[in-house]
Amino acid sequence: MDEQKKEEPKPAEAPAAGAEQKPASAAPKPPAKPAGPAPEPLDNELVRRLRARFGPAVGGATLDRKQAIVVVSRERFLELCRYLKDEEKFDFLTDLTGVDWLARRPRFEVILNLYSFSRNERLRLKVPVDDACPSVTSLWGTADWLERECFDMFGIQFPGHPGLKRILLPDGWKGHPLRKDYDILKQDTDWVRENLGIESGQ
Questions:
Q1: How many Å apart are CA 114 and CA 97, to the nearest integer?
Q2: Which domains are delineated in the chain?
């Protein structure tokens, strides 16, 4: 049988001079992410009891993804926390952290997540502060290391803490890495040079 000759592919023809080349079609944009549920105003029995007892010290109250959130003033924060633990049985502080809003005044928020074993209920407190928030270590033992971490990362002071010092970074470190104005590339050049023998930065 005769072997069939394979046809060699013809070279692509160059576009004629002056002919317009169509731009390659742009990649399709990914679909927009659906917006999450918006927080709703919260006015349950707990919030009403807090407002009746602490008045204007209790600010906005919302429900966000089934999470009850209450804003509390710094002035009566410790008193309100004591009430929540003793009277409302929020006996476990599961987390404490901070947020740096930078352009806001007060600049920071200290955020506490509380849990009641007897009621199987969670509550989040937000406390706007400039640079200090009363310590709750006298109420919840878990606050000890949580407040130290918040101080270490944000520089927020916790008056009443039994031993407020850094917990993640070395004691001599300068600056607080989770502040919005902290230069993560610069870091603490003096400490890195003196203790690691290298130049700081990425």
A1: 12
A2: 40-168 (3.30.460.80), 169-202 (no CATH)
Q: Take residue 186 and report the two structure tokens written for it.
A: 């610069």
Q: 47-80: per-residue pLDDT in tens? A: 999 999 999 999 999 999 999 999 999 999 999 9
Give CA–CA dist 75/162, Å, rounded. Answer: 20
Residue 44 pLDDT level (bands cut at 50, 70, 90) = very high
pTM for this model (two decimals): 0.79
